[in-house]
Amino acid sequence: MSASQGLREWLLAEEPTSRRQARWASWYKGWLTLRSNTLAMLGLFVLAFLILAAIFAPLLATHDPFAQDLGQRLLAPGENGHLFGTDSLGRDIYSRLLYGARISIYIVALVVMVAPVVGLIVGTVSGYAGGWIDVVLMRVTDIFLAFPRLILALAFVAALGAGIENAVLAISLTAWPPYARIARAETLTIRNSDFIHAIKLQGAGPFRIVTRHIWPLCISSLVIRVTLDMAGIILTAAGLGFLGLGAQPPSPEWGAMISEGRKYILDYWWVATIPGIAIFAISLAFNLLGDGMRDVLDPKEDHS
Amino acid sequence: MSALTVSDLNVWFGVGAERAYAVRDVSFDVAKGESFGLVGESGSGKSTILRAIAGLVPTWSGTMVVDGEPLGRRRSKAFYSKVQMVFQDPYASLHPRQTVDRVLSEVMHLHGVKDINTRIARLLDDVGLGSGFRFRYPHQLSGGQRQRVAIARALASGPSILLLDEPTSALDVSVQAEILNLLVDLRSEHDLTYIMVSHDLGVVGHLCERIAVMQQGAFEEVLSVADMRRLEAKSPYTRHLLESSIKSIR
Amino acid sequence: MTDAPLLDVENLWVRFRTRSGVFDAVRGVSFTLGKERLGIVGESGSGKSMTGRAILRLIRPPGMIEADKLEMHGEDILSAPESRMRQLRGGRVSMIMQDPKFSLNPVMTVGQQLVEALRAHEKVSRGEARRRALAMLDEVAIRDPERVYELYPHEVSGGMGQRIMIAMMLLPSPEILIADEPTSALDVSVQLQVLDIIDKLVRDRGMGLMFISHDVNLVAKFCDRIVIMYAGRIVETCKADELRNARHPYTLGLLNSVPDLEHPRERLEVLKRDPEWREAPSVSARQ
Fold first, then answer.
1. pLDDT surpassing 90 at residue C212
2. So where does this one cross the membrane (chain A) (predicted)?
């Protein structure tokens, strides 16, 4: 019996013999469910590929993303060693794409660290406490929900100046309310479960109940929502970039690249289209992965 | 001294004109080591009484005294180490993302129990689950096994009174027999007092000595199980209930 | 009478493809159903509910139904097209399930659901359908049919909901009724009422009844013939009044593990599940 077979058996064991084994076993089963979903795996690969491309950008790039060469402007893809051609300032699009991936992922990571976390806290506290705390927190949520993302971003940029961090802040401020709503809805359901009553009967206080019993159950809906929101967040960031409110030139942010390529779209389609395809790819990947995650975390039918 | 005394208990839901009484003017006494049953149809208020004792119901009036100590709005840690509850639905009473080990260790931790490891092993043994079940998740356990874990959780703090809310009604008949046997054994081993709610007179007859028959929130009659077996009941409702139960199993 | 039996099932298998292999919920079950009351008893996981659903072809992929013979009144239903099955479901064979909370449509009134059930199978005018629905509600002992007709399912009690369910399922006058734990969600006193209604209707209309339950004593009291299922197979079959003479250890175990109000015992008998029971071939309950 080879080592990998032994590991697989250990993971699928009927009777785990340690906490670690039980936890690894449930992760493994989740992985198996995800793996059986071809579209989700496709999304995962595309995402992994883009993340790796971003990490290894310095190694993979063929040119300096900021190097301008007016003698080489608007070259078609494949000409002169430029894989995806060059833009209006002669910068290599392929290399800019790779470094731009870093920016997109940076934006996504920042928003993910802020919006769902804030939403989780607000939602679960609101749902568990009930009463006036619930009312106040939900009205605050409503206020933030009422802001259209792009308009708020414009306001922020007008007040604080353009830049990636401000764009991220603006996106996060409008992204957290739906998570609060989801977390609150879950909390309201879970709150009345017998297992919550049972732990209350052991003398557990509200803090322990919310953080150790309710949060683990809300996490799945939030993760699913986050992966599906990713596409929207990237598009918003691209939109901000397009409007000149996000990353500032000469930063190779994908939205900004599309904006710069707008003027040339009829004759030099690749300048705007190729970053557009990149945005499409990453959004689609997140969507597919999100769907797959839903099957893993919130299975409607038991496949085990 | 009785283990539990309840006097003029009223439980209601809703406010003002919308107030609906789930329990009306209920009074009873349970002696130490006794097994007392609450029977009635759905909506009769029997589970509500258990929840009121456990402190899970906010709006109630009357007095409840456990081991000489009257109960107030909130329950103390000391109360939880004396009184514990086993819930009806084994599929809802365990946290779906926690292993058996996690559930039991958390409970023991909350009660300040030392050497949790050995205690868990002993508890699982007590309820008839081997050590192989220790690190399983609830979805890897059958209904009967889950209920055993729920019983283990209730026993973890070393209580003297167990509130049993229809502990076997969601289980298959053969599994029910195992759990009932277990409850009988545990009662004698740990000298427990049971207050059990059930709609099944056969189950109540097996486990209890005295029962109260409830209808629409009030006690219809309190009788001994011996009388119940002889179908000797004073109230026509009780008689009707007894006859229906007999007819449906014979 | 040389009629084909109402239901003729031979070697029925229901399989599900799962990640860890194929799971067989029903393994080689054979029985026939005439104008009688057949009880199918088993615990959860025995395959009894799956058998009922397989007959109605209500099992969706990845479930697969296989059988040597699956006929209703001589007509093959194993390979019948879905359009024919739709005609049969409700029209020739109906099913009542456990909890009316989940089997009645919560956004339609009782009357609307009854009328829909009838008009799906017979071409009747709305007025005629309403008349028959009210008559049916009366037949299931609902005291104020006109009032109940306008109610929504959440406004009626469990027992009444179940009676409405029965009315709905019997309106199109099917020949076979499959009742899957029809009284398990009801209080004891209401259970008897509902059973009496099912009894009367099945008798009056000369229907065949397949009564699926986990309660062996209830089935013994209510049915003519009993089939005991375990792990997807039939382990024993007998006449209801001969249940006391059952021979299979599983049947005896089921009977003995119920706490009897009138005959107390120190300890209840615990079923020792012999792996042999799972492996032994299915007993045929064909007549």
1. yes
2. 39-61, 105-130, 150-176, 222-248, 268-290
**In chain B, which residues have their Cβ closer than 8 Å to the Cβ of A197?**
54, 56, 85, 87
Helix (H) or strand (E) holding C39: strand C37-41
Instruction: Using the predicted structure, report yes or no on whether residue A139 has a pLDDT greater than 90.
Output: yes
Question: The domain spanning residue A96 has which CATH number?
Answer: 1.10.3720.10
- Give the C-alpha separation, B168 to B180, whole Å: 8
- Residues of A with Cβ-Cβ distance to C18 under 8 angstroms: 303-304
CA distance B75 to chain C (A): 33
Residues C43-83: pLDDT tens digits?
888 889 999 999 999 988 888 999 999 999 888 999 889 99
d(CA A46, CA A23): 27
**pLDDT (tens digit per residue) in B56-101:** 988 899 999 998 888 888 888 889 999 999 999 988 999 998 999 9
B2-249: CATH number: 3.40.50.300
Q: Give the C-alpha separation, A3 to A12, whole Å.
A: 14
Residues of A in contact with B104 (CB under 8 A): none
| CB atoms B177 and C257 under 8 Å | yes
Q: Residue A240: inside a domain, yes or no?
A: yes
Residue B160, pLDDT score: 93
> What is d(CA A103, CA A50) in angstroms, rounded to the nearest whole number?
12
Locus of tokens 């399989």: C15
Residue A112 lies in a domain: yes
B159 pLDDT band, cuts 50/70/90, is: very high
Sequence-separated (6 or more) residues with CB below 8 Å from residue A92 = A61, A62, A63, A64, A65, A67, A82, A83, A84, A86
Q: How far is A36 from chain B (nearest CA, A)?
A: 21
In a domain, A94, yes or no: yes
Mean of the per-residue pLDDT values of chain C: 88
Cβ–Cβ gap B41/C254 under 8 Å: no
* Structural domains in chain C, sorted by start: 7-279 (3.40.50.300)
Q: What is the pTM of this model?
A: 0.84
* Residues B229, C261: C-beta atoms closer than 8 Å: yes
In whole numbers, what is the pLDDT of chain A averaged over residues? Answer: 85
The C-alpha of C278 sits at a distance from chain B's nearest C-alpha, in angstroms, of 17
CB pairs under 8 A between B and C: 84
> How many residue pairs from chains A and C have C-beta atoms closer than 8 A?
8
Residues of C in contact with B184 (CB under 8 A): 267
The total number of structural domains in chain A stands at 1
Annotated domain spans of chain B: 2-249
Whole-number pLDDT of residue B247:
62
Q: Which domain holds residue A129?
A: 44-297
